[in-house]
Amino acid sequence: MTQSWSISEGARKSWDRRVPYYLRVRDHFASLIETGTLAPQSKLPPERVVGHAFGITRMTIRQALFQLEAEGLIYRLNRRGWFVSPPRLRYDPTANLSFTENALTQGRAPSESILASDWDREHLGIAAGEPVFLIRRVRSIDGRAVLVEHLHLDAKRCPGLLDEPLDRSMTEILAVRYGISVRRRRIHMRPTALIQAHAQSLDVAAGTPSLYVTRATYDQFGNVVEFDQEFWRHDVLDIMVDVHTDDGHTDDGGVETAAD
Fold first, then answer.
1. pTM passes above 0.85
2. Are residues 45 and 62 in the same domain?
3. Residue 139's closest CA among 204, 230, 225, 234?
4. Mean pLDDT, the chain, integer
5. Which of 67, 68, 149, 209 fits a disulfide with 73 by CB distance 3.0 to 4.6 angstroms?
6. Percentage of the chain surpassing pLDDT 90?
């Protein structure tokens, strides 16, 4: 029985030989993914099996797989192989939506595991030595870990926080239990590489590309009440921001930011 990823000898011989072999393999698998022949989360065959079927070296197959990975079409899990990537999660960093709310509105299946600590003092503008809650969460979508999240909160503003069910939206907890209203956020994003601890949580190799997002959350008094660090897999997000001017037309590219 012909396997869903294989190619006939005739089709392979008709390849344009001016195109490098690894790009031909890349195009073949990309086409199967785009047409749905290879479904999201399906596992690709081992490199040696693909190489034998295509009559090319394992190194060439690996080049093609690395190219597909760089484009976000497939992803690796340590010691488990290559898998077809699910659709990217649409992500507006300015929207007032929690991770769970954003995933659910797009028909995805979020989940998480949590480990909490109560001491860290960076980025919150409080005196050294004062208590801080640090909540570490690993977030998953459709069964795949996609985000390592560190939430730093001023412990004096939210006593007993660690007794709350921390799978809920932190914005909701702060508002309902502590009367803290979120008025604005300052967001920074930059590419980075995952260190060993974060990579292990996401089941990838250390040094894997990542999108690093920090978010300082200000309350109704202008104080930083929460500082978040997010380490996303590079192939998960489709970043989208809606910008509107007062007259209702789309802005020409300038984004107004709040002053300090």
1. no
2. yes
3. 230
4. 83
5. 68
6. 34
Rg (Cα) of the chain, in Å, rounded? 22
For 90, phi and psi rounded to 5 degrees? -65, 130
221 and 175 share a domain?
yes
Same domain, 120 and 201: yes
C-alpha distances (whole Å) from 204 to each of 65, 67, 79, 109, 210 are 15, 17, 9, 21, 11
Of 16 and 214, the one with more pLDDT: 214
Whether residue 48 is found in the same domain as residue 95? no
Q: What is the mean pLDDT of residues 183-210?
A: 92
Q: Read off the pLDDT of residues 37-95 as tens digits, 9 standing for 90 and up.
A: 999 999 999 988 888 888 889 999 999 999 999 999 999 988 789 999 998 888 887 77
Indicate the pLDDT class of residue 257, thresholds 50, 70 and 90: very low
For β-strands 144-154 and 237-239, DSSP reports them as unpaired
Domain span at residue 54? 9-84
- Count of domains observed in the chain: 2
* Rounded Cα–Cα distance for residues 216 and 218 (Å): 7
Determine how many CB atoms are found less than 10 A away from the CB of residue 120.
17
Same domain, 210 and 123: yes
